[in-house]
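fyi for ur records
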Amino acid sequence: MADVTRSKRTNDAIINVVQDSTIHLEGAPMAMAVPMRRLAGRLRTKRADHVVHGAKTLIAALLTWGIVAPWSPEGRPYMAVATALLMVNASTVYQSVTKATQSVVARVAGLVLALATARLLGPTAGAVAVIAVIAVLAGPRRTADDRLQIASTAVIALAATATDPMGSLVSPALQTLTGAAVGIAVNALILPPLYLNESDSAVRDLARSMGTLLHDMGTGLSRRQLTSNAHNWLHQARNLEKRLTRAEEQVRQADESLRWNTRCVAHTRRKETTFNDTFMALRGVSIQVRGIARTLADNAHDNHAEHHLGHQFLHRYAETLQLAGAAVQAFVESGPATGSPGASARERLRGAIDGALAWHDTMTDMIGRGSLAEPGAWHVYGSLMTDVERLLADLDRADAR
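which gave:
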């Protein structure tokens, strides 16, 4: 009875995959139009981002000049404007605040260093040498940029300290503080940057790459192309590391862009996903994909004939990989498939996982009964089955959350 139930689940899963494939083939023109619309949307978004970025930069510069010019020496608030531009051009509001803190501390330290050196040595070459040595050696915990900013600020302020010591210290410090405050305010209040779309795109691209590779390996195994394609599959699996790194950077930036972001407070966008949980699941899946590709490549070039995988196992494992590829791609889909408005992404993912698990149960039973050929390859069978089992378990747990 259990075998009959398992066979029914397997047949249903295959029928669903075939139907989905037919639907996608019939909707090929529409499928081609979707990437074009996405590309056009990205171009419009980038153009709008450039316009917003330019407007914010202009507003920060003019506002800072208007606030600081009346009380700055000779009406030239260049340091305040430079600081404001640095803050408003930070990639996130969180970066604006952290950069402002570092900049203010570094510049004040440079001004104090210039004042102390000028009083001891005067505006001489010896004072410049002392500033350089102190800036490099006195702050080992600071970054190279911070030490450079301290030194450059001290050298620029050195000449002014000789004529007006206190004024040369107080005025630049106030300019730096004012410019930082204006830059942060403009960046935080006027369409502060969010990177949710970039995070979404990077994670989806990673999932599509892994799903495509799994499907390609399944198709190749079904066509008995293991020996000819195994090395290429391994190469593609190793190249997933680049996409994984890019997706991780985008997810981190998206999470950071939500911190202290006024758009999140106004529109409760803090609850929106940055694909962080999805990325963590896909990172685990990528390990299993590379493991499968490595095992297949090693087996393809194994000189021991008794270690080669049997055709019956490869045929069934090919079905499993195709279903697993469909499950990975369905994992990041947010809407119904083209031509099947009644099937949600979760339903397609659940169907793909159930179908792959049915194949997994069947192959496990065959290995247990010893009905597969080439029993000397049992360790290879076990490795491949374990990787698929872990892959599906990661997707199942993440989908349940």
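DSSP finds 14 helices and no strands in the chain. thats all i got for now
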